[in-house]
């Protein structure tokens, strides 16, 4: 998370994430699933700006920033691939800032501008990252001094992935393991990966994918992946990737198989669906390789394509 204060305005770059590992452990009485997931932030960013207001109103102006994305992907209607934007009151950014205002008895309001590039309903965590960015920016704009743990406590009540985006920046590698519902975070150092993100046409609903999932009798462990991420042996990575939501997601959307097949034809290190889909990623050998893979995937017409690298999301305060 790149957090910058300019006079009274605070601006933040909110990164996407991918799940390198996602295993389900059990279904809980509250309907959520106990899981173990390894996530890493990647360099596809939404931009958020918060200006404090003297009145108590919270205003949100949210729009797709499609220019660059559309040009790179040569889509005539990028909104079809990026997804729908929720109305203001149900936007996680609005709800997060409102919750912080209420819980911390803040007399001021805020004007929030959100410009989105991370496709929604893709498993890339866009809405959760925006909410984390909004909490950090509002905390700074209102001079509240809330700790990451306090913000995380508030965040967990709004969405399982938000604490990851608050905590992962603490270390700077952007790599973390999340357990519980996804809200218990342990950060790790990790090497940089060059990747390509792919968002096929048509997103998936997270609750719908979870509804179709099965808990495995013998869950996979994330330890081999974490060990592989510390080693220099890139080829040790492929067998350690897992996503237990991949099967139910593929039952719901055949476009994921098309993307998987397209990646299989290319000489990538590994490929997998992210989160609850339908977003997908291919790990490449280096940046030039990622650019070549991105061009081939664009030519194959499988969806929107974004070459990215894993990135730290350390807060910059000035
Ligand atoms: O917490 P979040 O809003 O991201 O969750 C969306 C939906 O995904 C939940 O309503 C639930 O159906 C499912 N989910 C789950 N177990 C988790 C996280 C999410 O079943 N650990």
Task: Write a brief caption for the model.
Residues 91-169 form the GHMP kinase N-terminal domain. Helices cover 32% and strands 29% of the residues. Helix 3 packs parallel to helix 4 and helix 4 packs across helix 6 (162-171).
Which descriptors apply to this entry?
318 residues, alpha+beta, Ribosomal Protein S5, domain 2, Alpha-Beta Plaits, 2 domains, eight-stranded mixed β-sheet, four-stranded antiparallel β-sheet, 11 helices, 12 strands, globular, binds cytidine-5'-monophosphate, nucleotide-binding, kinase, isoprene biosynthesis, ATP binding, GHMP_kinase_N_dom
Q: Tell me, rounded to a whole number, the average pLDDT.
A: 90
Domain count: the total is 2
Rg, alpha carbons:
19 Å
Structural class: alpha+beta
What portion of residues belong to β-strands?
Answer: 25-35%
Q: Give the overall silhouette.
A: globular
CATH class of the largest domain, named Alpha Beta
Q: Can you name the CATH architecture of the largest domain?
A: 2-Layer Sandwich
What is the helix content?
25-40%
Q: Name every ligand kind in the structure.
A: cytidine-5'-monophosphate
Named CATH topology of the largest domain:
Ribosomal Protein S5, domain 2
Count of helical regions: 11
Q: How many angstroms does the end-to-end distance come to? A: 14 Å
Helix and strand sequence: EEEEHHHEHHHEEEHHEHHEEHE
Q: Can you tell me the residue ranges where pLDDT is under 50 for at least 5 consecutive residues?
A: 314-318
Number of strands: 12
Give a short account of the largest sheet.
8 strands, mixed
